[in-house]
Amino acid sequence: MPADVAADVRIHPVTAQRWDDLRVLLAPRDEGGDACWCLAWRLPSGEFGRLPGPGREDRLHELVAGTVPPGLIAYVDGEPAGWCNVGPRAAMHRLARSTTIRPVDDLPVWSVVCFVVRTGYRRRGLAEELLHEAVAFAAAHGAPAVEGYPVETGGARLSTSLAYVGTTGMFERAGFTRLAATDATSAGRPRWVMRRDLTGTAPRA
After folding, report:
1. What is the chain's Cα-based Rg?
2. Which residue, 2, 71, 163, 202, is most buried by CB atoms nearer than 10 A?
3. Distance between CA atoms of residues 92 and 81, nearest Å
4. How far is 64 from 45, CA to CA, in rounded Å?
5. Residue 160 has pLDDT above 80, yes or no
6. 101 belongs to a structural domain
7. Model confidence pLDDT, tens digit, residues 130-154
8. Is the per-residue pLDDT at 5 higher than 50?
9. Residue 69 lies in a domain
10. Nearest one of 184, 165, 78, 177 to 127, comparing CA atoms
11. For 143-171, what is the mean pLDDT?
12. For residue 2, is it within any domain?
């Protein structure tokens, strides 16, 4: 655990019982807002574009109620504080068909595509702790490797809205290596395909 993360952080896969906590993290402040609901990479572009905000919420609720949780929730002092969207790359429909983040190979990897950290809990290493748990979560589900598509900051500090995919430095600290540059950018900065091999990683009990 990074030194600046509070010792009382708890991270759990999102389940139907934790739906209200996930809403705290992802629902728009304005109830009439058209939130992403962290589905932009999971749904085909056409379906995502056609769904209004409430429809996206319902679609995510269906995923949460499914067999494999679509991500992890971090709690600090019992309060929902952060979210990581992780799952099989093949289930990320837009990602699987992306022309800017192309697959490096045919390995059935899992992908980490998004981090959300609530105001008041940022700059404390929470996203990095979520990433470590995402690796363990993927390993526990038999993934041969896990990928991310973070931004290379070049030492600059990016806003949370632009660094939601994580940074290359954070992924490197979590044991990921760079495989290939992508054609995607964030704030005009390049993004990379980074991977951590899970071969030989023992699943958690």
Report:
1. 16
2. 71
3. 24
4. 20
5. no
6. yes
7. 999 999 999 999 999 999 999 998 8
8. no
9. yes
10. 165
11. 87
12. no
One-letter amino acid at 103 equals: P
Within a domain: 31: yes
- The two beta strands, 145-148 and 110-117, are parallel
- Close Cβ partners of 23 (under 8 Å, ≥ 6 residues apart): 57
Write the pLDDT tens digit of every residue in 98-129: 999 999 999 999 999 999 999 999 888 999 99
Q: What's the structural domain count of the chain?
A: 1
Structure tokens at 51: 């769904």
Q: How far is CA 194 from the centre of its chain?
A: 14
Residues in the chain: 205
Residue identified by tokens 């990921």 is 176
Instruction: Give the residue from 177, 70, 56 showing the smallest Cα distance to 114.
Output: 70
**Residue 161: Cβ-neighbour burial (10 angstroms; 0-12, 13-18, 19+):** exposed
Please give the residue range of the domain that contains residue 138: 9-197
Rounded to two decimals, what is the model's pTM? 0.90
